[in-house]
Amino acid sequence: MTTGVFIYEDNDQLRESLSSMLQLNERYNVVGAGNNVLDIEGQLKTAHPDLILMDIDMPGMTGIEAVKKIRAAGLETPILMLTVFDDNEHVFDAIRSGATGYLLKKHIASRLFSALDEMLTGGAPMSPSIARMVINSMQTKPSQKALYNLTAREKEILGSLSKGNSYKLIAAEFDISIDTVRTHIKNIYEKLRVHSQTEAVSKALKEKLF
Fold first, then answer.
1. Is the domain defined by 144-206 classed in CATH 1.10.10.10?
2. Is a pLDDT exceeding 60 seen at residue 172?
3. How far apart, in whole angstroms, are the C-alpha atoms of residue 104 and residue 102?
4. What is the C-alpha to C-alpha distance for residues 155 and 75, in angstroms, rounded to an integer?
5. Is 97 within 8 Å of 72 (Cβ atoms)?
6. pLDDT at position 146
7. Full-model pTM
8. Rounded distance, CA 56 to CA 42, Å?
9. Residues 6+ apart with CB under 8 A from 156
């Protein structure tokens, strides 16, 4: 039994090349192809593909938006993104939207079939540089903002301090007592490891803490 594949790619030459590659492999069958995703729900409902190859940069609607639409409709068909983009924004947007794998177009000739096979067995194939990017993002140390663990109110008061507001004005702004303001500021100083309003504001602005 062959595996049905639907191709979405706005580059006519590449779309035809992908179709030819798949048709030459007896395990795969191209059940449809399109140069945009504007009618993707209707096309998938008719073609019932087992796998989808999805370009990102297409006219009218991006591949990432199409993936969101597919997942919102409850379809769990594995989707392999095919793209020239290897930047964080596109990669993580695609993954968050529900893409199954992410393959750079320069790797199509050497990795396409192994990627498709991997998706069919429940895997999430990625070009090496993409996999490295994902791993690096997971290993990134928490931001200083997270390490300071300021509460929402403390951030608000820190922001008010940065505007040069007095304790009295801050108390009025947030409808709290001056003593409460003092307590919050004391806690802010301890968390930021500073000893004055100037130090606190300087650190907050430099590290974008609010």
1. yes
2. yes
3. 7
4. 41
5. no
6. 61
7. 0.66
8. 19
9. 174, 210
Closest CA to 109 of 204, 24, 11: 24
DSSP 208: T
DSSP 8-state symbol, 2: P
What's the average model confidence in pLDDT over 84-95? 84
Q: Domain ranges in the chain?
A: 3-139, 144-206
Q: Which among 158, 145, 144 is positioned nearest to 186, based on CA atoms?
A: 158
Residue carrying the six token digits 């609010």? 210
User: Length of the chain in residues, anyone?
Assistant: 210
Q: Round to whole Å and give the CA distance between 36 and 11.
A: 10
Cα–Cα distances (Å) from 102 to 20, 27, 34, 121, 124, in that order, read 21, 21, 19, 16, 8
* Separation of alpha carbons 181 and 168, rounded Å: 9
Structure tokens at 87: 């930047």
CA distance 52 to 29: 12
Most confident range (mean pLDDT) of 97-101, 135-139, 159-163 is 97-101
24 exposed, middle or buried (CB, 10 Å; 0-12, 13-18, 19+)? exposed
Domains 3-139 and 144-206 alike in fold: no
Q: Could you confirm whether domain 3-139 is CATH 3.40.190.10?
A: no
